Amino acid sequence: MPDLQLLIFLVILLALIFDFINGFHDTANAIATSVSTRAIHPQHAIIMAAVLNFFGAMYSTGVAKTIGSDIVKSASHVDEHVLIAALFGAIVWNIITWKFAMPSSSSHALIGGVIGAVIMSSSGVDGLNFEGIGKIILSLILSPVVGMVSGCIIMLFLFRFFGHFRPTSINGKFKKMQILSAATMAFSHGSNDAQKSMGIITLALLSGGYIDVFEVPTYVKVLAATAMACGTAVGGWRIIKTIGGKIFKLQPISGFSADLNSSIIIFGATLLHLPVSTTHVVSGSIMGVGAAKRINAVRWGVAQQMVAAWILTIPCTAIMGALTYKFIILFV
C-alpha cells in the first residue's frame, strides 16, 4: 500500500485536476452569453474570465468549509482512499459530460463521488452527515429554480423600462454593459466553484494529521485558484455553444439580464457558504430570461436534457466513487 505522503499528494493532484477540468467545463458559465451576442471577442472573454476566476477563488473559504465538514460527520470518517475515489468519479463524469456537450454540475459530481466512496468504506452510511448533505442538495436544487424565476422578473423589468426604445439602440448599449456583467459572473464563479476542491484538499490534510483544525491554508487557496484559472483559459467551447445558443437565442439585453441575475445568486450563495451549481444557475437564468419574452422562445428539449443530467449526476458519480474505492482497496 502506498505510504500516507504519497496518498496525500495524489489527493491534492486529483483535486487540482478536478479544479482544472471544472474551469474549462464551466468557462461557459461566465462568458457564453457575452460571446454568443458578440459583445466581447472570445479570446478576450476567456482571459478576463481566467483572471477574475482566480481572484474570485481567493475571496473566501466559507464554501470550502461546507464541502469539507457537511458531507461527512468528521474527518475520521474519511481517508485518502475515499477522497481519491470521490475525485476520480467526479473527474470521469465531468469529462463524459464535456464530451457530449452536456452542461452538468461539477458540484453535484464531487458530492456524489464523496457519498458513494464513504458508503463503500468502513464508515458506511454512518459516516455521512445527512443534515449537511440535505442542506447542500437543497441549495443545489433551489438555486436554478430561483435563477429561472428571478431571471424572468429582471427581464420583464427591463422590457418595461426599455421596451419603447429601438432594438438596435438598446442592444448597442447593452453590449457594453455585458462586459461588466460577464466580469461579475466570472468573479462569482471563482468565488464558489474553486472552493470545492479547496474543501477536499483541506479535509485530506486534516484526516492525515497535517493540520489540526479545518482552516484552508493559503497555499491551498493559491493552488486551487491557479488550477481553475488555467482550466478557464483553456476554455470549454462545446458547452459554450450549448449555453450560449441552444437554450434561447440571446440578444445583448437578455444576455446582460442572465449574467447579472446569475452572478447575484452565485455570489449570494458564496456569502451564505452554500455550494451551488454555476452551470445550472446560468442555465436557469437563461430559461427565465427567454420565458419573459415568450414561453416558446426557450428550447425546452435542451432544458429537459439538462434536467436529466441534473438528476443523474449524483447517483452516477456515487456509483463511480463507490466502484473506484472498491478497486483501490482490492488492487492498489
TrEMBL record:
Compartment(s) where it occurs, according to its Swiss-Prot or TrEMBL record: Membrane
Keyword Transmembrane part of the UniProt annotation: yes
Transmembrane segments: 6-24, 45-62, 82-102, 109-130, 136-159, 307-331
Membrane topology category: Multi-pass membrane protein
UniProt KW keywords: Membrane, Transmembrane, Transmembrane helix, Transport
This protein's name: Phosphate transporter family protein
Gene source species: Selenomonas noxia F0398
Superkingdom of the organism of origin: Bacteria
